[in-house]
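Forum: Protein Structure Q&A
Topic: Joint prediction for protein chains with partners

I've read a bunch of threads here and the consensus seems to be that you should model interacting components together rather than docking separate models afterwards. I'd like to see that in practice. Below is the full input, 240 residues plus whatever partners are listed. Could one of the regulars post the assembled result?
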Amino acid sequence: MAQARTTNRGSDTRIGGAARIRGRIHGEGDLVVEGHVEGGVTLRGDLVIAEGASVSSEVVEANAVTIAGTLEGDVISSGAVRLSASARVRGNIRGTAVVIDDGARFSGRLDCEFDLPPELGGVSRSETRGRVSTRR
Amino acid sequence: MASTVIGAGITIEGEITTEEDIAIAGTVRGKLSAKEVVTIEPGATVEADVQGGSLVIGGALTGNVTAGDRVDLQAGARVVGNVKAARVTIADGAQFKGNVDMDL
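Posted by a regular:
Agreed with the consensus. Here's the joint model:
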């Protein structure tokens, strides 16, 4: 179909299942990857790697990150990171919170910075930083 | 809605290929090829050679364009490069610098 038509929509970005990107993606707004991305991803927005999608990137930087597909590379999140049951992740993850669902496969280090509860930390809340490191 | 959408705040530097259609409202530098419709929205910036089934251009494009079917330059479009397609339209208000090859 060859209709001349442009559409108006928000600033959300989607890489469809039949699409492949080799290169760098950066900017503002949310990104949903259903296809394949090879290269860096730096976002001021949320990132979703859908089931069936694959991303290979030295490092993926975003706000909240949800992974149901395959990721090869590190995650630096300024929000929460969630690995759904179908996720396959090889790399290190850093976020304010990390959720790994039953069935997800993950191999790497987990850096999760959070305030320790007072009974564990003893020091004033705002200055206490906890760190979880897991290796599987 | 296109299966692949590059939002207004997003920049992609590299190569994009898709078997389906794609709409660009942000910035793309590099190379872009799609089997179906490529839409470059008003406000978008594309510095790339573009290949598609058909192309609808409302934004700024620098690069050579090849379409299997047709290329439509809409009012407000700004295109610098060569256009190759069987059918080409240039709307009143579109800016265009380059060659047109309709493969006569």
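Chain B has no helices and 13 strands.
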